[in-house]
Design goal:
The protein has about 300 residues and is of the alpha/beta class. About 40% of the residues lie in helices and about 15% in strands. It has 2 domains: about 220 residues, Vaccinia Virus protein VP39 (Rossmann fold); about 70 residues, rRNA adenine dimethylase, C-terminal domain (Helicase, Ruva Protein, domain 3, Orthogonal Bundle). The termini are far apart. The relative contact order is 0.10.
Length: about 300
């Protein structure tokens, strides 16, 4: 890291973090879920997982005090860091010495990735170049931020995200343990857990452990559903009554007679006695096509 960032001394990340917090009279804001990464090994794991090159553009969400931002800037061509906390954003502009870093003081959920790339980065070709998302996400906005990028008109090619360990396991879950969240993410990309992160890797430490995930985003979803909103409405209906047979849960969620739902499931080749947690993405798509055909 540069002398400007480290203050010219080989400080540990915990010491450096506390120093910058004191210098700018800052405190971790519990309401924003702020926990600053202070583990060198985890920092390296995130950067390695991102597999950065000088031609890459990175959108970083929640840069905090810029420890990760600095490492991204050394490897990527362009880093756009989005920070909600105005005081942290102002501190970042003084801490980071890199010409290829732009700090945006906004709520990421109110931004449009296409507009950010067109308005903040160097000139792009007609088709926006692929970009990567790196984020240490506050637990309370994990799902909204994932959806924000995965559903965007211009999607990232890969996402490296720090999330609560339990959430990471839910996202990467296979048949028998799937949820609305895992299906929603796996529709858009292939998730995998890179490493688990103990609470002690942060200052201040959160109450639970975390995990670093990599989501490789598909150019096209692996199944064709047409109406994504309708498709995910069906999936949510399937989980309306957790741990019940799919025929009962879907009947409740869709507000349809059990006999009609059983017939649809059988037509889709799905045993009505199975639970929604066991359905594959292909089975959900097959069931949705039948539901859609009824509406046409």
């Amino acid at each position: 890291m540069s002398d400007r960032l480290t203050g010219g001394s080989p400080e540990s990340l915990p010491a450096r973090t506390k120093k910058w917090l004191r210098r700018f009279d800052l405190k971790a804001r519990k309401g924003l879920g702020q926990h600053f990464l202070v583990d060198e090994g985890v920092l390296e794991a995130i950067v390695t997982a991102a597999d950065l090159h000088p031609t890459d553009t990175v959108i970083e969400v929640g840069p905090g005090l810029g420890v990760l931002t600095a490492e991204l800037a050394k490897r990527a061509g362009w880093v756009i860091a989005i920070e909600l906390d105005n005081r942290l954003a102002e501190a970042l502009r003084k801490i980071l010495p890199y010409d290829n870093v732009v700090i945006i003081n906004e709520d990421v959920l109110g931004t449009d990735p296409r507009a950010i790339l067109e308005g903040q980065a160097p000139p792009f070709p007609e088709s926006i170049r692929p970009y990567k998302v790196v984020a240490n996400l506050p637990y309370y906005i994990t799902s909204p931020v994932l959806r924000h990028f995965l559903e965007a008109s211009v999607k990232p090619e890969v996402m490296i995200v720090m999330v609560q360990q339990e959430v990471a396991e839910a996202i990467a879950a296979g048949p028998g343990q799937r949820s609305v969240l895992s299906i929603a993410v796996q529709y858009y990309g292939k998730p995998g857990i890179i490493t688990r992160v103990p609470a002690a890797a942060f200052y201040p430490p959160p109450e639970v452990d975390s995990a670093v995930m990599r989501i490789d985003v598909y150019r096209r979803p692996p199944v064709e559903v047409g109406d994504e909103a309708g498709f995910f409405g069906l999936v949510r209906a399937g989980f309306a009554a957790a741990r019940k047979q799919a025929v009962n849960s879907l009947a409740q969620g869709l507000r349809r007679p059990k006999s009609e739902v059983a017939a649809l499931l059988e037509k889709a080749g799905i045993d009505p006695r199975r639970r929604a947690e066991t359905f594959t993405l292909e089975e959900w798509a097959a069931l949705w096509r039948l539901v859609r055909e009824e509406k046409e």
